[in-house]
Design brief:
Distance between the termini: 19 Å
Structural class: mainly alpha
Helix content: 55-70%
């Protein structure tokens, strides 16, 4: 999933995906604004089916790219766990 999230971030920030790594600062290195976070959320929801709408403040609070992608992955796992329980997976 991290590669897909890096691809999304690269598109939102106009960076080459190869330049991205977990230690990059959201504000300083990537210059991600709150508007860009909203764009990121919309793309993640559309492409990956992870509902991030209720977690905007948490995502805005991430200081590094690793924090942002880690939180997104964690939220994705949390959302898929209830689905797996209902479908018997």
């Amino acid at each position: 999933m991290q590669n897909m999230l890096y691809e999304i971030i690269a598109g939102v920030c106009y960076f080459d995906q190869e330049e991205l790594h977990p230690g990059l600062s959201i504000a300083d290195d990537l210059a991600i604004t709150s508007v860009m976070i909203v764009e990121y959320i919309a793309i993640v929801e559309r492409r990956l089916g992870i509902n991030l709408e209720k977690h905007v403040d948490e995502l805005l609070g991430c200081e590094t790219l690793g924090g942002l992608t880690g939180l997104t992955e964690e939220l994705g796992r949390e959302q898929s766990a209830p689905d797996a329980m209902h479908t018997g997976r």
